[in-house]
Amino acid sequence: MTEVTIKSYGKINLSLDISGIREDGYHIVDTVMQKISLCDEVSVRWKPSKEKNIKIELQSNKSFLPKDERNIAYKAAAFMSENFAEKVGGGKLEIYLQKYIPVSAGLAGGSGNGAAVITALNRLWNINVGARELCRIGSKIGADVPFCILTQNSRYGCALGEGTGADITVIKSKFKKAVMLVKPSFGVSTKEVYEGIDNCNIQIRPKTTTLIEGLIHNNRQVVYDNMVNVLETYTLNKYQEVNNIKNKIIEETAAEKVLMTGSGPTVFGLFSNIDQARQGCEHMRKQGYEAYWAKML
């Protein structure tokens, strides 16, 4: 085997809470994450050679994406190369990212790409590391990477993330809905939002344990009542357009629940069926927004 292509699925946050700040400056997070069908495709080709070093070359259908350590996929390849070079020897890694997930959207597009590189190299290099160990490796790359590794290496699509969000516990969710994703024309800095939230008065927080019970027992009302993202307190106030998008989805579509994912700026709506999600998507596109429909997996 010299080439592997991995589907790199996006995610939405069904809830996100912050309970404090760690000694290293990172926030303590409790978040319920859900895999969705919108995905990129990550192809990794390995060409062994007699060279001592491993050369990494990254390309994408999106020309504006960085092709060095600023890209999580490249960063993941470099980390794997450093840690497993003695086992595999020298050669060239060719990585191609076919992007469909919008960039800087809070959907874990970049994290999923990094996870896909780790997953692909585990297979190409016959490292034979299990999903749990891969998640530990992924936590060195980014907080969302372990969840993405989980969804790429198991049948699970929902999990609780704790700590920085990288400590993953599987949720055996029976709750499935169609999803519409709407993104404004700009991105939002995750660093800015987490720094800004410390000065916000958070009035509503999710009951994470109750939400998980609702997901397990497919109790729609319990799930919706506990879908809260505390980062909305900062982002919706700082970026009026994100707030406008949320209100438009609530008022102008058949969405049953509307929430911002991650630190934003993407807002998602949950629908009873894919036709409603598609209709809502087309409605938002007519108003000039970048919009997608998908399914919870």
Helical run tally: 10
Largest sheet: 6 strands, mixed
* Total E-strand runs: 10
Unreliable stretches (pLDDT < 50, length at least 5) are none
Tell me the span between the first and last alpha carbons. 28 Å
Q: What does the radius of gyration come to? A: 19 Å
Order of helical and strand elements: EEEHEHHHEEEHHHHHEEHE
Helix content: 25-40%
Q: What structural category arises from helix and sheet content?
A: alpha+beta
- How does the overall form come out from the CA principal axes? globular
* Oligomer class: single chain
Rounded mean pLDDT is 96
Q: Tell me the fraction of residues in β-strands, as a range.
A: 25-35%
Q: How would you portray this structure in words?
A:
The protein is an alpha+beta fold and 297 residues long. Helix content is 36%, strand content 29%. It has ten helices and ten strands. The strands form two sheets. Strands 1, 2, 3, 4, 5 and 6 form a six-stranded mixed β-sheet that branches. Strands 8-9-7-10 form a four-stranded antiparallel β-sheet, with helices on one face. β8 (257-260) and β9 form a beta hairpin. α1 (72-88) runs parallel beside α2 (109-124). The chain is globular, with a radius of gyration of 19 Å. The two termini are 28 Å apart. The model has no long low-confidence stretch (mean pLDDT 96).
Structure summarized in a few sentences:
Helices cover 36% and strands 29% of the residues. With 297 residues, the chain is α+β, with helices and mostly antiparallel strands. Strands 1, 2, 3, 4, 5 and 6 form a 6-stranded mixed beta sheet that branches. A 4-stranded antiparallel beta sheet has the order 8-9-7-10, with helices on one face.
